[in-house]
Write a structure and sequence with these properties.
Blueprint: H1 3-8, E1 28-29, E2 34-35, E3 44-47, E4 51-55, E5 60-65, E6 71-76, E7 79-80, E8 90-91, E9 99-105, E10 108-115, E11 118-125, E12 130-137, E13 145-151, E14 170-173, E15 177-179, E16 185-187, E17 200-204, E18 209-213, E19 231-234, E20 237-245, E21 257-267, E22 301-305, E23 308-309, E24 317-322, E25 327-331, E26 339-344, E27 347-355, E28 358-367, E29 372-375, E30 378-379, E31 389-393, E32 426-427, H2 433-436, E33 440-442, E34 449-453, H3 457-460, E35 464-474, E36 478-483, E37 486-487, E38 512-518, E39 531-538, E40 550-559
Length: 560
């Protein structure tokens, strides 16, 4: 085993990053939205023996260790923000002994850090309070990939679902989920956001902001709806994360290659400029730096679609693109479904249209460098909501939205004091059925949920198909159904992430529909009586309570 692999497999948790811009009164330079000082006085670097010291020519001075490649100092307006617990800011959990070099090219300073299969770059641009970062991971010798910016304790308010106080709160799961005295739960996992939902994360006091704007995630895994940790805060310090590949609740194979830029940025309290977000960031200045794996605008292509036919106006639509080397996505316009995705690496991709998070159309599309692939209107034919149903719980959109506790579960533990009871049965036709049905069912917690419904004489005389749609499953948990006296076979477990998910703020796995053929003999012949559907979770694995085998639900219906 290589030394760097042995050093890093202790940490499997990754994070998310951000880019920012100094909120000064200076004019916007070069149309980029990056604020520069008039003179950039003092821009340059020096060597203090242990670190390369970079003066951005503005209010930020940062240091990079010459031996490890860690950022060892982030001093903004003379105040130190970096580090806690004897640890610094770095890729993974710290690379250890590395080869670190520096050079200046005009108004850019570039630091290169090489350690085994990972190469890390840092860049400073004259007059900007930003650190630009790239990470190139060549193979799987590191178990996971993140960059974490470690922030000194007490610099920013310690609040939010991803903040806790270990002197008062108690650990309730795996060393990383905490319960406060008021019954609320907190964890670094509880960001409440999907990748598509954010451009930056960070902290602000109102007068100082420290932000991490994410990269385009083209070499990350999990797609636009992936949920992961983005930041954390406690009495011992705080952290901001750029998740490059995270093993938890992962739905895709890992991709390798260059990721970035993602940017650490200081402002005078405000949010980073939108011109710094990955979709709009001008990276022409990067082209001549010699960063391994960098592909500039000229080497990339675009896909543009006229629109989508068959959309449900109640839901947003996203068009995703993925192959073994890269992933991208674009939001479809409301009404028309028109979409455009730029900056794509050349290659052949699987194009997937998502109704919210449910795949309803797929096809192949080819991207060429410097070209635009134009697509005619795409017809959506894979929406299960179009099927006629006797009754339906929830709607088919790839999420548990609308079910009991669904919204809370993206930023809290199932045992959170704010959660409604996970038990409780449902009667079709009573009103508010979906809101009464639990978003998740676990083998040890609320197994055996009942759904009551009546059928007409004609309906009871026929066989019907029961569909149960799930978004994820923990420990191979899957539903087996009983209808009155009829018991279904145990279905085969579909492929799902193998790590925690339902307790770490994520219901996102591989959407799957279980189909049960219920014979006419199963129904009550007396139409005044309720038929009773029982849902049990079956699995031969799993722990106890909320770590027992479980699943999250998308929709459930009985077809006509």
């Amino acid at each position: 085993m290589s030394t760097h692999k042995k050093h890093l497999t202790r940490r499997r948790v990754l994070g998310a990053s951000a880019i920012g811009v100094a909120a000064t009164g200076a004019a916007v330079a070069g149309g980029t939205g990056l604020l520069a000082s008039a003179s950039a006085a003092g821009f340059g670097y020096s060597d203090d023996g242990a670190n390369y010291v970079v003066n951005t020519g503005s209010a930020l001075v940062f240091k990079v260790s010459k031996s490890t490649g860690d950022i060892t100092s982030l001093a903004y307006k003379g105040k130190e923000y970096e580090g806690y617990g004897g640890k610094h800011s770095h890729v993974e959990s710290g690379l250890g002994a590395s080869t670190v070099t520096v050079r200046q090219s005009g108004s850019t300073i570039l630091i290169k850090v090489v350690h085994g299969s990972i190469t890390q770059w840092y860049a400073a641009r004259s007059g900007q309070n930003n650190v630009y970062l790239w990470t190139n991971k060549a193979d799987a010798s590191f178990t996971a990939t993140r960059y974490i910016v470690r922030v000194k304790p007490g610099m920013f308010p310690n609040t939010g679902s991803d903040a806790w106080d270990s002197t008062k709160d108690e650990i309730i799961e795996a060393g990383d989920v905490w319960r406060a005295p008021d019954g609320t739960t907190h964890s670094k996992h509880y960001s409440g956001k999907r990748t598509v939902d954010y451009d930056y994360v960070g902290f602000t006091t109102g007068s100082v902001g420290l932000w991490l704007v994410r990269s385009n995630h083209e070499k990350a895994s999990g797609g636009p709806f992936y949920r992961s940790l983005l930041r954390h805060s406690n009495e011992g310090g705080a952290g901001l994360y750029e998740i490059l590949h995270y093993n938890e609740a992962q739905t895709e194979a890992e991709r390798f290659g260059l990721q970035g830029p993602y940017v650490i940025s200081f402002t005078d309290g405000g949010a980073p400029s939108s011109s710094l977000f990955q979709a709009d960031l001008d990276t022409g200045w990067v082209d001549g730096l010699g960063i391994t794996g960098w592909v500039g605008r000229a080497g990339r292509g675009k896909v543009a679609g006229v629109g989508l036919k068959g959309m449900d106006a109640k839901y947003p639509y996203t068009v995703g693109f993925a192959n073994a080397d890269a992933q991208y996505w674009a939001k479809a316009a409301a009404g028309t479904g028109a979409f455009s995705c730029k900056g794509m690496l050349p290659g052949t991709y699987t194009l997937t249209v998502y109704k919210n998070e449910l795949a309803v159309h797929t096809q192949s599309v080819k991207v060429t460098a410097g070209g635009t692939t134009s697509l005619h209107t795409l017809a959506i034919t894979g929406d299960p909501s179009t099927a006629s149903a006797v009754w339906r719980l929830g709607d088919w959109d790839g999420t548990p939205t609308g079910f009991k506790n669904a919204e809370l579960m993206t930023y809290a533990h199932p045992s959170d004091g704010r959660a409604a009871k996970w038990t409780g049965n449902v009667t079709i036709g009573s009103g508010g059925e979906a809101a009464s049905f639990p978003a998740y069912i676990w083998k040890d917690v609320n197994d055996g949920i009942l759904v009551y419904f009546k059928l007409t004489r004609a309906q009871a005389a026929a066989a019907h198909t029961l569909r149960v749609g799930v978004t994820d499953a923990f420990s191979n948990g899957r539903p087996r159904v009983t209808v009155n006296e009829w018991v279904s076979p145990i279905p085969t477990a579909p492929t799902q992430p193998s790590t925690r998910s339902l307790t770490t703020g994520s219901y996102r796995g591989n959407n799957h529909t279980f189909t049960f053929s219920v014979p006419s003999s199963a129904w009550k012949t007396d139409t005044s009586q309720y038929n009773v559907l029982k849902i049990d979770i079956v699995s031969g694995s799993g722990g106890a309570d909320y770590l027992s085998a479980g699943t999250s639900f998308d929709s459930m219906d009985l077809l006509t």
